[in-house]
Design a protein that fits this description.
Elements (H helix, E strand, L loop, with lengths): L6 H24 L6 H14 L3 E2 L11 E5 L2 E3 L13 E10 L2 E10 L5 H19 L7 H14 L3 E2 L5 E3 L6 E5 L16 E4 L2 E3 L5 E3 L6 E3 L5 E3 L2 E6 L2 E4 L5
Bound molecules: 2-amino-4-trifluoromethylsulfanyl-butyric acid and cobalt (II) ion (CO).
C-alpha cells in the first residue's frame, strides 16, 4: 500500500533529508586517499546524532554501521572497515536518518583523486540516470516512466542497471511501497500521485547487470568484477512536479 503524505509531512521528511544531505556534503570534503572507511562511518554518525537524528541503517535487519561505503566493484551495502581509500577508487556513500518521525535517504558516488576516464563516465551517467528518473516523478505519470527513463539513460551509454535491488517509497518507514525498479516500460505500473515520497536509486554496472553477495551477508559486488556506481535522492511529488528533499548544498 502506497502512503500519500500531506504537505506538513513532506516538510518533516525534508528536515530529515536535509540532515542526510548535510552529512553527505561534509563527507564529500572528508573522502580522500588515505582515509579509513570506518572513520567516515564514525564521522557521519556523529553529525547525525549532534542534529538529534538517528542513523537509519544501524541495526536495520542487523546492519552494523550507520553508513554504507561501496568502493569500485561494490554495488551497494559495502561495510565500513579498516580499508584505506586509495587514489583512483570510486566511492559510494549511502546514508539515511530518522528524524522527528520521518526517514531521509540519499547516496552519492565520488571519484578519489585521479580516476580513469571510464570510471568518471560511469559516475556521470549514473547521476544523469537518477535525474532522468526524477524528471518523470510527476502526478499522473506511471511508475514505469521513472524506471524506463533510468534504464534508457544507462543502456544508451552502454552500461547496465542492477535488477536485484530497487528504489522505494519512504516516510515513517525506511522502505515503503512502491518498489521502484531501475528498469521497466513507459506507461506501465501504478499511477504516480501528489504526496508520494520516493527514494529513487539507480545502481549501475560498467559491465553486466548481475551481482553477488559476499559471505558477510551484506556486501553486494558485480559478478563480473566491473565497476559500479550508485546515486539516490528522496523526492516528493508535488503540484509543481518533483521536489528533491535530499538536495546537497
Ligand atoms: N539506501 C539503502 C536502501 O534504501 C540503504 C539500506 S542499507 C541497510 O535500502 F543496511 F539499511 F539495509
Ligand atoms: Co534507499
Amino acid at each position: 500500500m502506497v502512503i500519500l503524505k500531506l504537505p506538513d509531512e513532506i516538510e518533516k521528511a525534508r528536515a530529515s533529508n536535509r540532515i542526510v544531505a548535510e552529512v553527505l556534503s561534509k563527507l564529500r570534503e572528508k573522502v580522500k586517499p588515505g582515509v579509513k572507511t570506518k572513520d567516515l562511518d564514525k564521522f557521519a554518525e556523529e553529525i547525525a546524532l549532534k542534529r538529534g537524528a538517528k542513523p537509519a541503517f544501524k541495526g536495520y535487519h542487523g546492519y552494523p554501521y550507520s553508513l554504507c561505503i561501496s568502493v569500485n566493484e561494490v554495488v551497494v551495502h559495502g561495510m565500513p572497515s579498516d580499508r584505506i581509500l586509495e587514489e583512483g577508487d570510486i566511492v559510494g556513500l549511502d546514508f539515511g536518518v530518522y528524524y522527528q518521525g520521518y526517514f531521509g535517504d540519499a547516496t552519492i558516488t565520488l571519484p578519489l583523486g585521479k580516476v580513469s576516464e571510464k570510471a568518471l563516465k560511469l559516475i556521470r551517467v549514473t547521476e544523469q540516470s537518477l535525474y532522468a528518473g526524477i524528471e518523470q516523478a510527476v502526478d499522473g505519470n506511471r511508475l514505469g516512466d521513472i524506471s524506463a527513463a533510468v534504464q534508457s539513460t544507462v543502456e544508451d551509454a552502454g552500461y547496465s542497471v542492477v535488477r536485484d535491488f530497487v528504489g522505494h517509497g519512504i516516510g515513517k518507514n525506511l522502505h515503503e511501497d512502491p518498489q521502484i525498479p531501475n528498469f521497466g516500460k513507459k506507461g506501465r505500473g501504478i499511477e504516480l500521485k501528489k504526496g508520494m515520497i520516493l527514494a529513487i536509486e539507480p545502481m549501475v554496472n560498467a559491465g553486466k547487470y548481475r551481482v553477488k553477495i559476499l559471505p558477510d551477508g551484506w556486501t553486494v559486488i558485480t559478478e563480473d568484477g566491473s565497476l559500479s556506481a550508485h546515486f539516490e535522492h528522496s523526492i516528493a511529488i508535488t503540484d509543481n512536479g518533483p521536489d528533491i528533499l535530499s538536495k546537497l548544498n
